Amino acid sequence: MGKKECLADLPEFKGRSDIDLLSRTCGYTPTKTLVVGEESQSDVIRVFADALYRVCAFRPVDPNWDKRGEMFSSTS
User: Fold this and answer.
1) Hey, where are the domains in the chain?
2) Residue 25 buriedness (CB in 10 A; 0-12 / 13-18 / 19+)
């Protein structure tokens, strides 16, 4: 996001009242969109790591995981 922009300037956040529209950073939760201001490179890593955690940690458990079979044959 540009230096003079805020979340309210982005079309994904038009009409939203449940988040701080003056913020310069938005993580994955509200819109599944990552937004980081261009001046903050360390926030890119933090926001991306949080999104990765949320996608992997909160996905539903696959009850058939142990019965999925082998992708590759062990006999070559």
Assistant:
1) 7-57
2) middle
Q: Would you state the structure tokens that stand for residue 73, as one six-digit string?
A: 């044959």
Structure tokens of 74?
Answer: 């062990």
For residue 62, give both structure tokens.
Answer: 């696959």
CB under 8 A, 24+ apart: contacts of 21-28: 27/51, 27/54, 28/54, 28/55
3-state SS assignment for residue 35: strand
Read off the tokens for 19: 């988040």
Write phi, then psi, for 52 (nearest 5 degrees): -60, -45
pLDDT along the chain (76 residues), means of 10: 89 86 84 88 92 89 83 58
Neighbours of 46 (CB within 10 A): 13
Residue 43 phi, psi (nearest 5): -70, -25
- The closest of 30, 37, 38 to 13, measured between CA atoms, is 30
